[in-house]
Design a protein that fits this description.
Elements (H helix, E strand, L loop, with lengths): L2 E4 L12 H8 L4 E6 L8 H4 L5 E4 L3 E6 L1 H10 L4 E2 L6 E3 L2 E3 L27 E4 L5 H10 L4 E3 L3 E3 L1
Parallel strand pairs: 1-8
Antiparallel strand pairs: 2-4, 2-5, 3-4, 6-7, 8-10, 9-10
Amino acid sequence: MPLAALSSATGEFDVAASPQSRQALNDSVTHVVTVHRDDLRGRNLSEYVPAVQRIVDYGAFARLELTDEQYQQLQGSGLQFEEDEDYGIINFDRFRFDPVTDGEPALNQELVGSAASADGKSLQFVQLRNTPTSADIQMLANNVSIVQYYPNNTYLV
């Protein structure tokens, strides 16, 4: 069940293709929060938290990836925000796991198939870093066959 952490809302899949690579990328990121544009009261995000690790702007809201120190700065800033407690978590059926911190879930042997079919095809999860835009989904669909969506930001391809 290999996973690929792909960059969302950047127009390209430029991020790690393995949980180990995603871990290296996200070592300093410990909080992901959403800030709604209306809550900024006309100010720039950098006035609340300088040097944010990563910001993805969706227009009406922005998602921020923060270190512990930046998160504490944001808490003290008075700006309202929502922390995403499920960031990186994949949810389906009775499985709930973060492929970076938890690894793959344990499966009964009868559920484990071969890595690939006779024609070399296999199913894999692709997990995007942030809420995918329609352009992200289209780019993914142009490169692989999307079978199904799973929370959070994960596609079976």
